[in-house]
Amino acid sequence: MDTAQRRARLAVRHRLAHEARTADVVEVVRSLVALHATDPATVFLSTAARGPELTPRHLEEALYDRRELVRLLGMRRTMFVVPTELVPVMQAACADALAVTQHRNYTRLLTKAGVGDGDTAAWLDEVAEETHRALLAAGSATGAQLGKLVPRLATKVDPAPEKAYSKPGPITTWVLVLLGAQGRIVRGRPGGTWAGSQYRWEPIESWLPAGVPAVPLVEARAALLRAWLRAFGPAPLSDLVWWTGWAKRDVTKALAEVDTAEVDLDGTPGLLLADDLEPVPEPEPWAALLPHLDPTPMGWKSRDWYLGPHGPALFDTFGNIGPTVWWNGRIVGGWAQRKDGELAWRLLEDVGGDAEAAITAEAERMRAFYGEVRAVPRFRTPLEKELSS
To answer: How confident is the model at residue 192, as a pLDDT?
Structure first.
C-alpha cells in the first residue's frame, strides 16, 4: 500500500477532505477514536478543523448537555475525549491499570509522609469513597468545594521533600485523579471559556447511571485496536505499541482477537483490518489547520510519510506536536494565534498558489471559530512561539 493511498485514507477517515467533513461533532470524534484533551482547546479546535459549520457551542452541548462525549484518562496516561459508548472499552483497556499504578504511587507517598494510621492503602480508599459520596450528594463540585466537604482532602503531603522546589500540598488532586482513573468521576464543564481548564467534577453516574460496565481486558484491548486500525491503518506494529502505550506482548495478544491482514508499506510490514483492503478513492485537494496535539499527527510513531523533514520546527522536546498546516495529506507548515486574535501561518515548502489560497481560507475560518478566545498552547513548539510573538 503506497503513501498516496495512506494519505487518501487519512483525508477521508479523519474527515479532513472537504467531502468527508461533517457538522455532527460526535461523528468527528468517533472517526478519530479519541481526541487528545490534555489541553482543553485542542478538543474544540480538532473538531472545528473537520466541521465547517461547527461552533464551540456544538461541542459544549455534546459534552455537557447531551453527554454523548466524556473526558477520561486513557492511552499513555493521557487525557482524551471519547464517545460515551467507548468508555467501557477505554476503562478496561487503559484506565483500570492506570488506577492501580496511581493508587500504589499515592500510597507510597502517603506512607512516607506518615499518613494513614498504619494502613495507608485503606486510608486512601476511605478518603476516595467519602469524596465520591460527597460528589454524588452535591451533583457537581470543584476541587476546592470538595476539599471543604471532605476534610481529609486537606491533608498535606510533600511529594519530594529532598528537592528544594517541592513543597507540601493537599491531596485533593491525587484523590480526584484516582477516582477519575477508576471510572467513578469525570470532568464536567469548566469555568470561563471553552479553553479553560478549571473543571467542575461530576460522578460518572451523571453520564452512565449504572456506572461503567465491566469489559474483559483482552476483549477491550481488541476492540480498541480494531477501532484504531479502522481509523489509522495500515500501520506497523510499532505504531500500535506506541499509540496504546502497552507492552508489545499485550498488543500482540490483543491482535490475536482481531482479524487483520499484512501489507507492505514501502518495505515495512503494516497491519490493517482484513475487511479493509479495498482502496479509498483519492479525494479532492484539501487544506487544513490542525491544532497542537491533534489526534491525526499524534496517531502514529512513524511519521515520515506525512511529516517529511519538518519535525524540528513543529515538535517540542517532549514529542508534542504544535499547530500544523496540511495540504493533501501531508504537513507543509505551521501556524499560531497571536495576541490580537489573528492567525499567522508559515509554509515550510512551496505548495503553489492554489494551495496557499485554500490555506488562507482555512486560516480565516479557524480565526472566526476562536472569536474572542485566546488560547496559548500548553506545549510550545519553536515555530508556534515564533509566529505568535
So the answer is: 87
- From CA 41, how far away is CA 357, in angstroms rounded? 26
pLDDT at 159: 84
Q: What is the mean pLDDT of residues 68-77?
A: 94
**Mean pLDDT throughout 235-258?**
97
Alpha-carbon gap, residue 291 to 139, rounded angstroms: 33
Average pLDDT over the chain, rounded to an integer: 95
On whether the CB atoms of residues 34 and 294 are closer than 8 A, the answer is no
pLDDT at 138: 95
Find out whether 190 and 150 touch, Cβ atoms under 8 Å: no
What local confidence, expressed as pLDDT, does residue 202 receive?
Answer: 96
3-class SS letters over the chain: CCHHHHHHHHHHHCCCCHHHCCCCHHHHHHHHCCEECCCHHHHHHHHHCCCCCCCHHHHHHHHHHCCCEEEEECHHHCEEEEEHHHHHHHHHHHHHHHHHHHHHHHHHHHHHCCCCCCCHHHHHHHHHHHHHHHHHHHCCECHHHHHHHCHHHHCEECCCCCCCCCCCEECHHHHHHHHHHCCCEEEEEECCCCCCCCEEEEEHHHCCCCCCCCCCHHHHHHHHHHHHHHHHCCECHHHHHHHHCCCHHHHHHHHCCCCEEEEEECCEEEEEECCCCCCCCCCCCCEEEECCCCCCCCCCCCCHHHHCCCHHHHECCCCCECCEEEECCEEEEEEEECCCCCEEEEECCCCCHHHHHHHHHHHHHHHHHHCCCCCCCCCCCHHHHHHHC
Q: What pLDDT, on a 0 to 100 scale, did the predictor assign at position 117?
A: 77
Distances (CA, A) of 135 to 140, 143, 184: 6, 10, 10
pLDDT band at 197 (very low <50, low <70, confident <90, very high): confident
